Amino acid sequence: MVLLGAPGVGKGTQAEHLSKKYKCCQLSTGDVFRAAKSASSDAMTETMREAVERMKQGKLVSDETVVQIVRERYDCLTCGYGFLLDGFPRTVDQAKALEDMLAELGVSLDAVLNYTLDTDEVIRRLSGRRTCRACKATAHVIFNPPQVEGMCDKCGGELYQRDDDQPDAIRVRLKAYEDSTAPLADYYDRKGLLINISAEGSPDTVFGRTETLVDKRFF
Ligand code: AP5
Ligand code: MG
To answer: Each residue of 122-140: pLDDT tens digit?
Structure first.
């Protein structure tokens, strides 16, 4: 499955629940770039340096780089329990590249979960998000505050605010989503793969909705 939706809609939060329940392999291209960012700078290739710089500004990384990143993680696409792609594809060209990869592997895409939410709420979720440096879990200063300020509930690591969760970068990300990613909903709808899911309510409420729709489709 592919998870689609605006930045901050809760894709990562739902991906965690989904991969636990369905035991599928999870790949977030954003996580790959953030992990590269924390690697030492001489261990980084020029392509990765460029990708990280674009990510900081909220811009999309080039299709070529993202597709290469996914290709290097082919194993995920052949996981016996299936795969969950969070944040890929994000353009129609990436969707076509994914189709080619899956055809090479003899695997098919079963569903695209498209999370929808009002833009003001998306901005609230993004601007209050805090991410753990160690385990990458997320918290939210209002919706899901940590027990100890600045400290991850899961592992005790330091919580920080992502560079691209600053107001300027949020604006750029939302524009990139509208221009390049939102058209994918129609693209997948025409292929009969799209499942629209409201992302309103608590993470558990959204997951309940997701489970019902996924189980109805597959089981
Ligand atoms: P990526 O990491 O994929 O970022 P994104 O799509 O902008 O999405 P986010 O991770 O910000 O949000 P999310 O939907 O996962 O929400 P979350 O669950 O954290 O990509 C980052 C960058 O990498 C891109 O901008 C680009 O530069 C590059 N990139 C990656 N893939 C690319 C590609 N394919 N092509 C080109 N470039 C690419 O939740 C958000 C917050 O809300 C959290 O604080 C959470 O606790 C809270 N929350 C979640 N659910 C709820 C709820 N139901 N109620 C209340 N609060 C909630
Ligand atoms: Mg995410």
So the answer is: 999 999 999 999 999 999 9
Nearest of 181, 127, 194 to residue 5 by alpha carbon: 181
Q: Which residues carry out catalysis?
A: 11, 90, 129, 162, 173
Q: Which atom of ligand 1 is nearest to the CA of 9?
A: 14
Could you say which DSSP state residue 29 is in?
A: H
What number does CATH give the domain 2-118+181-218? 3.40.50.300
Report the amino acid identity of residue 197: I
Kindly state the average pLDDT of the residues 70-76: 93
For residue 168, which phi and psi values (nearest 5 degrees)? -65, -45
Q: Is 172 exposed, middle or buried (0-12, 13-18, 19+ CB in 10 A)?
A: middle
Query: Counting atoms of ligand 1 from 1, which one is nearest the CA of 162?
Result: 11
Strands 138-140 and 129-132: antiparallel
Q: Give CA–CA dist 67/40, Å, rounded.
A: 23
Whether the pTM exceeds 0.70: the reply is yes
**Is 114 near ligand 1, meaning CB less than 6 Å away?**
no
Parallel, antiparallel or unpaired: strands 83-86 and 25-28: parallel
Query: How high does pLDDT run on average in the chain?
Result: 95
